[in-house]
Specification:
This protein is mainly β. It contains 7 helices and 44 strands. Among the domains are: 83 residues, Carboxypeptidase-like, regulatory domain (Immunoglobulin-like, Sandwich), CATH 2.60.40; 302 residues, no CATH class; 181 residues, no CATH class. It is globular. It starts with 6 loop residues before the first helix and ends with a strand.
Length: 855
């Protein structure tokens, strides 16, 4: 029979049959339905009780009360009783009539059971969002969160106290008995046990700050005025500002009402995010009386314990505001974050005004270390908020100037000042830190030991008014110089806060040549050149080798580890450069660098300046003259960084960094060529919720004028075995040049999002990375030596085969897969080159490694 009808006809007949059977089942029985409805209230207060379970006894039919305490059940199921239950109240049951409409109102009495002793094991329950009062509750909190967040207020001001603590954690008994600490046994008397993360810690740094904080909604603006600061006195050996900068990066603002919460380099999905019920499980575990306010304790946990999600308790008001009045949460230990072993976040809110709950106390604790349970670092930030003034107009002039400024109370140096104004008392060990550090400073051996520690950590040997370094550049080697030895240093702020002298002297055993650099930088502000914002002038002269097109931002070329290279690496330039620069930085992180340099440049090694390209008969052009005026603009809104000895270590954030570099050369200024060079770079980090973050950099450049290849864009290659994010890691030195180009650089860190779900791999805590680099460029006829006989021919190898090319045919593309957090400190990338595979001496495939020693 089935073979006589088409599939389409058969499907149509099935649907008609199903519809007919459904109609027979529903409509004749409609008159016999049971309808129960009513309101549930508190027997003592008469207030409605939301989220009460209402269940027909002996069936799976039920519902929960809404925020007005109302409920309604319509069903064909047969039952004799309806039961009402909610944690914190005594359950009630009522008889019902089947097939009839009835109203049953219930007054629930508070239970006499000690609810705090209830143990919840949500992982063993069958869980569903449907008809779940906990999910219904969280949805109401999410619905009301815009009106409960601080940003809903027009004007806000308050007093803020912040205490930041850094300590050694997991102190073993063997450390106390170590000979190196025999003169500091008194230090270990200060060991304490943390309250938030069970651990024994030894405080080594503490800073307290009192400030006045102001907020305006439209136009949005903030201002913090610091009125007092107290810090341990280790500035001679420890960069207090650097420590605080790193801790501020660690302790980023936790705003529970945001959809995503940024912590370290990861975005955690908030338990109050719009999409949170799809990723979290929620359980109502208790009702409590906190600060004369009844609230519901709501436990939440990740559905997938390896995702970037929190777990803990929310305390939610049992009124129409559905506000959060408390948070106590942490990070699951299965989550893969470099160095972080444990995390605890606690926030308390207090009612201000009729319905507004504002943050009153926050405590964030972090336990960090290479191996869990072994010695590491413990950091804690405690912040008290008090003296709130809500929706009182704030004068616009308050918000002028930098986001943070100082107006130090003249009495803040008085010891009684902090005892009076400190809203959160210090613990025994915290209070003893100040005296402990003073005692340490009096131990003569301490200063000698700290000199050695600073040498290892900063690579500079501090001799008071002068420091020698960096240590890592003392020895290196290359094919032109052979073994290269270098010694250098600079003056410190003990010599002068205004003037900084620096320089080095280097010598190569193969070329028997001395290279050197000498410079002076003068600060035009009362601050040193290491304090933001900088305004300075610099004059320097340098004679040294450079690799064509290689601008190493964060490492010197003569670093020992960069001496190991693949392929040929014997083409250098010798630059004799006189340089003058004026740097001006602004509080909004806009800066400009105006400069002039004159360079006499000559080829070295197997590199020649040659017009016909025949290395067997070189033209012996000894050098070229480069005289440039340049202007570099940079804007990095809301940028934070740590000032290192040699450079600034920037903490990435969600804001872009925009740079525009211009250079102008003219024969009238004793330049051999006329040209204008423009380069623009835009980079930004994008946080993609629980699947990691992506660093994206777009860059473009253009040269107007005819110049030889040393003045073209020589694209940044990498022939070392170290991974370099701003270089093309499978491109050879001097391989590609352009007078116009555009590039795209993408680096996405999954932060273990994939590997954490693989049973065996997740134990290794390896984090996966993908990279993609694309470069497209071109060369105008005026800059092509084949069309312009006044330009040097591109470099060739010993067999007169070209090694330098333009990017006319197609873009250069390489991509890779990386693995980080290997043994907690290594990153390894497997990289594949996809274009220009027929170039001489290239590698189409390779491994690169990077050592990561920072959080």
């Amino acid at each position: 029979m089935l073979s006589k009808v088409t599939k389409r006809e058969y499907s149509f007949q099935i649907w008609i049959l199903i519809f007919f059977l459904i109609s027979l089942n529903i409509y004749p029985q409609e008159a016999g339905k049971t309808l129960i409805k009513g309101t549930v209230t508190d027997a003592n207060t008469g207030e409605p009780v939301p989220f009460v379970y209402v269940l027909l006894k002996g069936t799976s039919v039920g519902t929960v009360t809404d925020k007005q305490g109302k409920y309604s059940i319509r069903t064909n199921a047969k039952a004799t009783e309806v039961r009402f239950s909610f944690i914190g109240y005594e359950a009630e049951s009522r008889s019902i009539q089947n097939g009839a409409e009835q109203i049953i109102d219930i007054r629930l009495k508070l239970s006499s059971i000690t609810l705090n002793e209830i143990t919840v094991k949500p992982g063993k329950r069958e869980y569903s969002n449907k008809n779940n009062p906990a999910v219904a509750l969280i949805e109401m909190v999410i619905e009301h969160k815009d009106q409960n967040r601080q940003e809903s207020i027009g004007y806000l001001e308050y007093e803020k106290y912040e205490k930041t603590l850094l300590a050694m954690s997991n102190i073993p008994d063997s450390l106390r008995q170590a000979k190196a600490f025999e003169k500091y046994t008194f230090v270990f008397d200060n060991i304490d046990t943390t309250k938030r993360i069970s651990n024994n810690v030894l405080p080594i740094f503490i800073q307290e700050t009192l400030s006045d904080y102001y907020y305006r909604k439209e136009p949005e603006a903030t201002k913090e005025i610091i009125v007092a600061t107290k810090t341990v006195n280790l500035q001679e050996y420890l960069d207090n500002k650097g420590v605080v900068a790193n801790l501020d990066h660690l302790f980023q603002n936790i705003k529970i009402y945001d959809n995503e919460i940024l912590f370290m380099t990861n975005k955690f999905l908030s338990p109050l995010a719009r999409s949170a019920p799809a990723f979290y499980r929620y359980y109502i575990t208790d009702t409590l009386l906190v600060k004369d306010m009844r609230c519901i304790r709501l436990f939440f946990e990740p559905r997938n314990k390896s995702d970037f999600l929190f777990h803990g308790d929310l305390y939610i008001t049992m009124d129409s505001s559905y506000a959060v009045m408390g948070i106590d949460m942490g990070m699951n230990r299965n989550i893969n974050i470099d160095w972080i072993n444990d995390l605890s976040i606690k926030q308390d809110f207090e009612k201000s005004g009729q319905d507004l709950w504002l943050l009153s106390l926050e405590e964030i604790s972090i336990d960090a270390g290479v191996v869990r349970g072994q010695p590491g670092l413990y950091a804690q930030r405690t912040v008290s908020y008090q003296g709130y003034s809500v929706n009182n107009h704030i004068d616009d002039k308050v918000f002028r100037g930098p986001l943070t400024s100082e107006s130090i109370d003249p009495n803040s140096d008085n010891p009684d000042f902090w005892n009076i104004n400190r809203p959160v008392p210090l613990t025994r060990s915290e209070g003893a830190v100040y005296d402990m550090i003073d005692s340490i400073n009096k131990v003569p051996a301490f200063s000698r030991q700290m000199v050695f520690v600073n040498l290892l950590t900063t690579q500079f040997l501090d001799l008071g008014k002068f420091e020698i370094g960096p240590l890592g550049n003392t020895y290196s080697f290359n094919p032109v110089e052979g073994s290269r030895f270098r010694a250098g240093g600079r003056t410190t702020t003990d010599f002068s806060r205004k003037a900084t002298l620096d320089g080095y002297l280097a010598y190569g055993t193969r070329d028997n040549e001395f290279k050197y650099n000498a410079g002076i930088t003068w600060s035009l502000t009362p601050r040193t050149i290491y304090q933001f914002p900088v305004k300075s002038v610099r004059l320097s002269y340098q004679k040294d080798l450079v690799l064509p097109g290689q601008e190493l931002r964060f490492a010197y070329r003569d670093n020992f580890f960069l001496s190991f290279t693949r392929g040929e690496n014997d083409k250098f330039l010798m630059n004799n450069t006189l340089r003058f620069e004026f740097l001006n930085e602004y509080e909004n992180h806009f800066s400009y660098l105006l400069g002039y340099n004159y360079t006499s440049q000559q080829p070295l090694g197997s590199l020649y300046f040659d017009y016909d390209g025949d290395v067997t008969t070189p033209d012996n052009i000894s050098s070229i003259n480069i005289s440039e005026t340049y202007l570099n603009l940079r804007y990095a809104p809301n940028e934070t960084f740590y000032q290192e000895k040699l450079y600034r270590d920037r903490f990435p954030n969600k804001y872009p960094v925009i740079q525009l570099n211009t250079a102008f050369g003219a024969e009238a200024l004793y330049n051999d060529y006329d040209y204008l060079r423009l380069q623009m770079n835009i980079s930004r980090r994008f946080y993609i919720s629980i699947i990691g973050y992506t660093d994206v950099a777009l860059e473009a450049g253009r040269i107007f004028g005819a110049v030889p290849y040393p003045l073209l864009f020589i694209h940044t290659a990498n022939q070392t075995y170290a991974y370099r994010s701003n270089s093309y890691n499978l491109m050879n030195y001097l391989e590609f040049v352009s007078d116009k180009y555009a590039s795209l650089n993408i680096d996405h860190q999954f932060n273990g999002f994939i590997f954490n779900k693989v049973p065996l791999l997740k134990q290794l805590k390896i984090r996966e990375i993908i990279t993609f680099k694309m470069l497209y460029g071109g060369l105008g006829a005026n800059n092509n030596p084949d069309n312009n006989e006044d330009l040097f021919h591109f470099p060739v190898d010993g067999n007169n085969m070209p090694i330098t090319f333009s990017l006319e045919k197609k873009p250069y593309i390489e991509a890779g897969i990386g693995f980080s957090n290997i043994l907690r400190v290594f990153r390894v990338d497997l990289i594949k080159r996809f274009t220009y595979l027929d170039q001489p001496g290239i590698s189409s495939f390779g491994f690169r490694m990077q050592l990561i020693l920072v959080i």
